[in-house]
């Protein structure tokens, strides 16, 4: 695989299960054992009910675009070829929002509210990033 | 002090303290100064302005500079400036920190921890990079941002602008009106970095950084510093400068960009409500505003959150000169982060002090009858907000 120059996540004790689930192409988020709410980014405490028990739960992979941006400035050589690229905040059906990219689509065609589905981008042998593709309404 | 079960413990802090000294370093590119040297210069200037020396100061508030974090920046500054504080700490609320410093200074003075506090901020965002052997402060959520290209403040603040445009129909032309107003004010300010007047068309023609932000929707990146001296109002009356009274303040912090229920109302609503309540005033009583303008859209959201217009109406509200000097509510009379320089909002406070003292700025940018101003601080990736109401009279 060609050397990957973009920033990679550094899994820690809170997040390693999340990143492993992405690598396994079965993205899972913490669902609180107490109030049943999902949370993201991964953390040890439920911010809603303070339960410390959570179950890693695979997500549906369905969501919609909450924010879409078109990055037009390169932040270094790793990004040169991608500019302009899409950055989106995705609201998952599970009720949490995450930063990601809507791919395989010109960035300016992505709109707030567009339905999207989860896809996996195996950017290195060790790391897979969760990304999204637009779906038919 | 009154205490009742279930209610907040309330100390009457209104106008009990005042700003008695301000210091502003040069702003722009300061390649020959260390971050510490910039801060010491700001402290020196502020104390000179206040007619005080290091032995008169017993409180020091600082912030960790991004490029020069230390175990205790406040104590580094205090030691280097010959100050032996009975109260000192670093605050960490991003661009809300300078306003929060003033709040904390009042709290420390009213509890008797100290009598006179220097608040200082200085950084080298333009030329600094890292000082040798120093780390760099991070936001803490990079793992969930940077791999997707979420690489800087324009992206996260762009999310606010994108939602505001989506929910309320705000336009790039309306946002551009903020940039034009800031530049007009900077053009009247000898110490501003960007002084060439611009038009709406110039803003719209500037290159895209991250849509929906053009280059001219984004603030400058600067070296520079500022410092403020706060003391009790009683003590302030014996000092050479006209005191600028701290009439009201508040803070409000959000759950951040991913977990806030909405991105178009930020912590400014809660913070300003506290400040208005303490000061016993409302938006109609404010003569000018110095609002944290890291991006044009943030000034618009803050104007709404502060009640100058209804939520969603900020876009059309800022058009046609309303926020320019001579308009209904002059905003950022020094040119703001967008055109004066970026010292994380510290110079929004020093500018408010100058406006309220009178005879301290170029006459063309003096707000007529400036009796009361409001200052906002905003930072930490949409998470932090603090508000200050300053007054010429002890009220």
Question: How would you characterize the overall build of this protein?
Answer:
The complex is a heterodimer of chains A (137) and B (395). With 137 residues, chain A is mainly beta. Chain A has two domains: 14-58; 60-137, Beta Barrel (OB fold (Dihydrolipoamide Acetyltransferase, E2P)), CATH 2.40.50. Chain A is built from one helix and eight strands. The longest helix of chain A has 8 residues, at 16-23. The two termini of chain B are 19 Å apart. In chain B, helix 2 links the parallel strand 2 and strand 3. Chain B has 395 residues and is α/β, with parallel strands linked by helices. The model of chain B has no long low-confidence stretch (mean pLDDT 96). Chain B has a nine-stranded mixed β-sheet with strand order 3-2-4-7-1-8-11-10-9, with helices on both faces. In chain B, strands 5-6 form a two-stranded antiparallel sheet. Chain B is globular. The chains are: A mainly beta (137), B alpha/beta (395). Chain A binds chain B through residues 6-11, 15, 40-41, 47, 66-73, 75, 79, 82, 84-85, 87, 89, 96-101, 108, 112, 123, 127, 129, 131, and chain B through 141-152, 154-155, 158-159, 162-163, 166, 207-212, 255, 257-259, 263. Strand 4 (62-71) of chain A pairs antiparallel with strand 5 of chain B.
């Amino acid at each position: 695989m060609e050397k990957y120059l973009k920033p990679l996540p550094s899994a820690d004790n809170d997040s390693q299960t999340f990143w492993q689930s992405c690598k396994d192409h079965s993205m899972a988020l913490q669902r609180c054992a107490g109030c049943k709410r999902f949370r993201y980014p991964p953390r040890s405490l439920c911010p809603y009910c303070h339960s410390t028990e959570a179950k890693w739960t695979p997500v549906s992979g369905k969501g919609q675009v909450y924010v879409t941006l078109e990055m037009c400035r390169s932040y270094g050589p790793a990004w040169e070829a991608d500019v302009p690229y899409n950055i989106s905040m995705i609201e998952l059906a599970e009720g949490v929002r995450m930063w990601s990219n809507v791919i395989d689509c010109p960035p300016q065609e992505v709109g707030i509210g567009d339905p999207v589905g989860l896809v996996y981008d195996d950017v290195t042998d060790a790391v897979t990033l969760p990304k999204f593709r637009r779906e038919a309404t | 002090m009154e205490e009742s079960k279930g209610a907040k413990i309330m100390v009457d802090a209104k106008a009990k303290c005042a700003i008695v000294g301000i210091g502003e370093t040069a702003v722009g590119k300061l390649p020959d100064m260390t971050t510490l040297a910039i801060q010491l210069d700001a402290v020196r200037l502020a104390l000179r302005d206040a007619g005080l020396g290091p032995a008169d100061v017993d409180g020091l508030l600082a912030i960790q500079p991004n490029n020069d974090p230390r175990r205790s920046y406040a104590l580094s500054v205090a030691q280097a400036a010959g100050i032996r504080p009975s109260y000192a700490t670093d605050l960490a609320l991003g661009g809300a920190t300078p306003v929060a410093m003033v709040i904390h200074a009042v709290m420390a003075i009213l509890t008797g921890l100290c009598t006179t506090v220097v608040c200082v901020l200085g950084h080298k965002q333009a030329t600094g990079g890292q000082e040798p052997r120093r780390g760099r402060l991070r936001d803490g959520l990079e793992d969930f941002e940077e791999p997707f290209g979420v690489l800087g403040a324009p992206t996260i603040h762009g999310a606010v602008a994108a939602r505001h445009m989506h929910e309320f129909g705000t336009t790039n032309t309306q946002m551009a009106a903020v940039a034009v107003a800031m530049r007009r004010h900077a053009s009247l300010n000898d110490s501003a970095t960007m002084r060439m007047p611009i038009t709406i068309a110039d803003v719209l023609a500037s290159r895209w950084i991250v849509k929906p932000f053009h280059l001219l929707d984004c603030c400058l990146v600067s070296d520079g510093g500022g410092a403020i001296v706060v003391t009790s109002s009683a003590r302030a009356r014996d000092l050479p400068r006209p005191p600028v009274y701290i009439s009201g303040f508040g803070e409000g912090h959000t759950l951040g960009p991913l977990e806030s229920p909405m991105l178009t109302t930020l912590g400014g609503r809660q913070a300003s409500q506290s400040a208005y309540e303490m000061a016993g005033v409302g938006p109609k009583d404010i003569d000018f505003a110095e609002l944290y303008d890291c991006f044009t859209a943030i000034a618009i959201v803050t104007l709404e959150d502060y009640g100058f217009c209804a939520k969603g109406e900020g876009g059309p509200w800022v058009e046609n000169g309303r926020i320019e000097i001579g308009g209904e509510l002059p905003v950022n009379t020094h040119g703001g982060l967008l055109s004066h320089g970026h010292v994380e909002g510290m110079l929004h406070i020093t500018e408010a002090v100058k406006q309220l003292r009178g005879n301290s700025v170029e006459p063309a940018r003096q707000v007529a009858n400036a009796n009361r101003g409001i200052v906002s601080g905003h930072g930490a990736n949409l998470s932090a907000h603090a508000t200050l109401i300053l007054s010429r009279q002890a009220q």
